[in-house]
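Rotation project, supervised by the postdoc (A.L.). Task for the rotation student: set up a whole-complex structure prediction and record inputs and outputs verbatim in this book. Inputs entered:
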Amino acid sequence: MFHRIVLSPLTRQRSYGNVPQPHAILYYSQRATNGGLLIAEATAVSPTAHGYTDSPGIWTEEQVEAWKPIVDGVHAKGGIFFCQLWHAGRASNTDMQPKGQAPISCTDKGLDLDYRLPYSPPRKLATDEIPAIVEDFRIAAKAAVKAGFDGIEIHAAHGYLIDQFMKDEVNDRTDEYGGSLENRCRFALEIVQALTKEISSGRVGIRISPFADYLECGDSNPEELGMYMAQALNEYGIAYRDRAQNEVRGSTVPGPTKFGSYEKGF
Ligand SMILES: Cc1cc2nc3c(=O)[nH]c(=O)nc-3n(C[C@H](O)[C@H](O)[C@H](O)COP(=O)(O)O)c2cc1C
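Outputs recorded:
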């Protein structure tokens, strides 16, 4: 039995030391309903993925174990719980990165604004480093299922790493991950492919925001970008796609949320 009331992912910054805390059992179970879908807050896939202090991760055993009772609390109320997998990319700073390194991105162009953090200039990933980031998402998805989550949502919105690759105002690459729409969306779709293979398409959702320019991450043709992603995603039969925020009246891009096989249950 499912219904259509969904809790949006909401960053709380209460996962001290990047480990989810017991108070989250109460927080998430209070928001759970029988048959309702909850999306957990943005959860880092690797040590380089954090962009806010005290955001949770799912890249250590300790984090996986800490998520388990939180997921159990939601399940006890009959809720369905997806973990939002996230990499902040350049929306981070050296204090948050392993060994004080520069945050990684598709570019070495930094952010001008200091919104919630003083952002540090990023380091542009070499082409041969990109498969390892896809792999981080795959391992994190596997860990999320191990923690008991019913599925995962890929955070490909709001100016974070995947969105940085997709948008032509940020992506200045000349390799197969930059330039054409197909190239800019390659990273996102490689992650979708890896995750559907790892945990099955019915357990994978995605959040995109083609029209948003949050974190200085805009695109010159969001309509075309959104349509391209919507059509490409149809090939994978994933559980749902969510087009987050910044609705544009009259846009033909499907949205905001399209449910697929998730409705049929797992
Ligand atoms: C405090 C706060 C934290 C948020 N954290 C996330 C997040 O972790 N992941 C995400 O995709 N969106 C995040 N969002 C965006 C929300 O999920 C939602 O899309 C946004 O608030 C718009 O919905 P609303 O009009 O109902 O507020 C956050 C929003 C707020 C206000």
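Student's summary: Strands lie at 6-7, 37-44, 80-86, 104-105, 123-124, 151-156, 204-208, 240-243, 257-259.
Supervisor addendum: The two ends are 11 Å apart (CA to CA).
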